[in-house]
Amino acid sequence: MRIALGNDHAGHALKDHVRGVLERLGHEVIDRGTDSDTPVDFPDITFATCDAVRTGEADRAVLVCGTGAGALMAANKIAGIRCGLGHDVYSAHQAVEHDDANAIAMGAWLIGPAMAGAVVEAFLGATFDNDEDTVRRVAKLHELELRSARELTGAPPGRPVQPLAQSPAVES
């Protein structure tokens, strides 16, 4: 798989380990993170990383920040991205199996290298259950995106929502 890897300054310490796990598992890494611990804004990194999934350049995204919470919130604001919080193996594979997650966020301050590696393996090794219940629930997640987009743009129900322009501060 092609994996977009993104990290902010707080996730920098865990980045090389996660990259190594991805490469050891045979995945192509598309690096969208920072290479230092100089502060950067996680929403910009998250968008650049998840946009690779949204546009088809990458199959999934792995996000590493301090707690995972900020990246999780930012990722789930991006249309088409379903991001889980990966601080344990069960949640990592369950997010894919039941929620069709295409991104995972983890906190470098909260989990160490061994757990990060196990989380990445579980996330990337999982497949969507694709049964009637999970398909219906993921479709409802998509409808929530559309409903919120209509509300933000003032578009009436049933009408297409125009996509937002990419922020000039974010380079892919």
Brief summary:
This protein has helices at residues 12-24, 42-54, 69-75, 89-99, 113-125, 132-153, and strands spanning 2-7, 28-31, 60-65, 83-85, 103-107. The chain is an alpha/beta fold and 172 residues long. It is globular.
Oligomer: single chain
What is the count of helical runs?
Answer: 6
- Structural class of the secondary elements? alpha/beta
| Rg over CA atoms | 16 Å
Strand content: 5-15%
Largest sheet: 5 strands, parallel
Low-confidence stretches: 164-172
Integer average pLDDT? 92
Features:
single chain; 172 residues; alpha/beta; five-stranded parallel β-sheet; globular; disordered C terminus
Explain how this protein is built:
- The two termini are 19 Å apart.
- The protein has 6 helices and 5 strands, in the order E-H-E-H-E-H-E-H-E-H-H.
- 46% of the residues lie in helices and 14% in strands.
- The C terminus is likely disordered.
- The chain has a 5-stranded parallel sheet with strand order 2-1-3-5-4, sandwiched between helices.
- It has 172 residues and is α/β, with parallel strands linked by helices.
- The longest helix is centred in the last third of the chain and has 22 residues.
- It is globular and about 45 Å long.
Question: How do the helices and strands line up, and which of them pair or pack?
Answer:
Blueprint: E1 2-7, H1 12-24, E2 28-31, H2 42-54, E3 60-65, H3 69-75, E4 83-85, H4 89-99, E5 103-107, H5 113-125, H6 132-153
Parallel strand pairs: 1-2, 1-3, 3-5, 4-5
Helix pairs in contact: 1-5, 2-3, 4-5
